[in-house]
Fold this sequence. Notes:
The chain has one domain (2-209): 3-Layer(aba) Sandwich (Rossmann fold), CATH 3.40.50. Helices cover 29% and strands 25% of the residues. It contains seven helices and nine strands. A seven-stranded mixed beta sheet has the order 5-4-3-6-7-8-9. Helix 2 runs antiparallel to helix 3. It is globular.
Amino acid sequence: xxxxxxxxxxxxxxxxxxxxxxxxxxxxxxxxxxxxxxxxxxxxxxxxxxxxxxxxxxxxxxxxxxxxxxxxxxxxxxxxxxxxxxxxxxxxxxxxxxxxxxxxxxxxxxxxxxxxxxxxxxxxxxxxxxxxxxxxxxxxxxxxxxxxxxxxxxxxxxxxxxxxxxxxxxxxxxxxxxxxxxxxxxxxxxxxxxxxxxxxxxxxxxxxxxxxxxxxxxxx
Length: 220
């Protein structure tokens, strides 16, 4: 029964997932490993059953607690942007949410350290990722704006919510040559940015307009 649930039927079937991957290709996603993860990860298990038939639409969906599962294109774009200069070993993910982004990313890197401020969401993500056999993830219930100093420096940092300005702690925990992918700005004016740390400076590259929930400090 579990295998049937993961494989999906009807609007959650492999054919439906193939159509989503084709749309992502048409939108410019070119990394074959990322596209294969989108095809293979059962997005429908990360949303409420009532929304399962919409899981492979290229849209964000609610997951409770005022949070959303990100649009597949955005998940793929952020993952691709993180991997463009090479495969990072040690990655920090700020905002685990339901765990979908984590499931896409984890097999493509050596280690993911993921932080979520909302404990019930983190607990749910743990269950889903275990169900999928994803084992290279370290979880933490905490304030993602502070990063995770004990496991820094990071080769890559991926932030799944939008701060008004990038938390200094995240920049400081980035290894030289490391990349930070983060949406920045107020609602309606956000852009996805890739920062790359160099020896004496921080490079900044805009990757286009996006719409994310705000990044909030503290824990619940």
